[in-house]
Amino acid sequence: MSKNIIFYFSGTGNSLKVAKDIAAAIEDCELISMGKSHKLSGTYERIGFVYPVYGGGLPGAVERFVKALDLLENKNSFIFSVCTSGSGSAGGLTNISKIIDSKDGKLSYGETVRCFSNYVGLYAMGNNADIKAKAQAQATKQVIKDIQSLAVKPPSKNNPMILLHGPFIKWLAKRDKAFNVSEACNSCATCSKVCPVENIKMQDGKPIFLHHCEQCVACVQWCPKQAINIKNKTQNRGRYHHPDITLADMINKKL
Ligand SMILES: Cc1cc2nc3c(=O)[nH]c(=O)nc-3n(C[C@H](O)[C@H](O)[C@H](O)COP(=O)(O)O)c2cc1C
Ligand code: SF4
Ligand code: SF4
Predict the structure, then answer these.
(1) Max alpha carbon distance in the chain (Å)?
(2) Are residues 138 and 205 in the same domain?
(3) How many whole angstroms from 66 Cα to the centroid of ligand 2?
(4) 191 lines ligand 2 (CB under 6 A)
(5) Which range (47-51, 169-173, 245-249) has the least confidence?
(6) Nearest Cα residue to atom 2 of ligand 3
(7) Whose CA is nearest to atom 3 of ligand 2?
(8) How many whole angstroms from 7 Cα to the centroid of ligand 1?
């Protein structure tokens, strides 16, 4: 068993990159995807949660994962949370702090790392991925120092954005009904492999979406043929993933 464990959720690799950088620095650390539930066995020195901000709060998969996690043996561990965002932090940390409180644990440290904004369903992808990746790496350095030294910096408990968050997350789950697959699809199944929540089944060589989508946009962003689109909105919006994260990193969710 490792001394430390980090749970992550990531569609385009920003959060996975932060999680990997922290894991490398604190050493002796397991990295586990939050796409599926996990049973903690034993006591860890540090337990981390790293994920993107969705609609000013937690992705639905992260909320479900943390609610289901049994922290009984780890109430005294140093629990930290780092959310990655395109522009703000809002309620991502507040949400998770409340869930951990309800399990008699304590979120000792919460921080936001600003990254490239990846929601291609709403806007075109910027052409500044390398600049954003550098800024992300710079911000992660301070987070690493804090986590190495077990710094106590809990997030604020109040955030008004949380009021809007629930309906937004519900709406996202069925938003895959707006996905379409063009003739460019070569049946490679990459989309199905990168989906963190097994929402894509391959049928007759084409992806079928199962309507429990997180809208993480991994399938849209990693398709090598840019064959997956959201209505007619994303055809010319470009595609993005973190420059240091490979498809193999995404697919080997347990690294
Ligand atoms: C469905 C969705 C909702 C998002 N909502 C927000 C948001 O409310 N605020 C924000 O700053 N960024 C938002 N983003 C941007 C992501 O949080 C940001 O790009 C994040 O770093 C992506 O992480 P990943 O590469 O690990 O998936 C959203 C992205 C998606 C896909
Ligand atoms: S990743 Fe793209 S090309 Fe590959 S099966 Fe999915 S839609 Fe088709
Ligand atoms: S179907 Fe696509 S957008 Fe939805 S959860 Fe899976 S990879 Fe993410």
Answers:
(1) 53
(2) no
(3) 31
(4) yes
(5) 169-173
(6) 219
(7) 185
(8) 17
Ligand 1 pocket, residues with Cβ under 6 angstroms: 10-16, 52-56, 84-88, 115-119, 172, 215-217
Ligand nearest to the CA of 200: 3
Q: Residue 92 carries which side chain, given as an amino acid letter?
A: G
Nearest listed ligand to the Cα of residue 203: 2
DSSP string for 197-231 = T--EEEETTEEEE-S------HHHHH-TT--EEET
Q: Which atom of ligand 3 lies nearest, measured to the CA of 191?
A: 7
Of all ligands present, the nearest one to the C-alpha of 223 is 2
Closest alpha carbon to 47 in 21, 66, 60 = 66
CATH of residue 40's domain is: 3.40.50.360
Residue of 10, 74, 79 lying closest to 49 (CA atoms): 79
Among residues 144, 163, 182, the one where a domain terminates is 163
In whole angstroms, give the CA distance from residue 27 to residue 240. 29
Is 37 found in the same domain as 133? yes
Give the chain's mean pLDDT: 93
Structure tokens at 235: 């055809």
Q: 85 and 111 in contact (C-beta within 8 Å)? A: no
Task: Tell me if 25 sits within 8 A of 56, measured CB to CB.
Answer: no
- Give the model confidence (pLDDT) of 78-136 as tens digits: 999 999 999 876 677 988 999 999 988 999 999 999 999 999 999 999 999 999 999 99
Question: How far apart (Å, rounded) are the C-alpha atoms in residues 244 and 229?
Answer: 24
| Residue type for position 40 | L
Q: Note the residue count of the chain.
A: 255
Q: In terms of Cα–Cα distance, which of 63, 19, 3, 59 is closest to 253?
A: 19
In eight-state DSSP terms, residue 4 is E
Could you tell me if the CB of 172 is within 6 A of ligand 3?
Answer: no
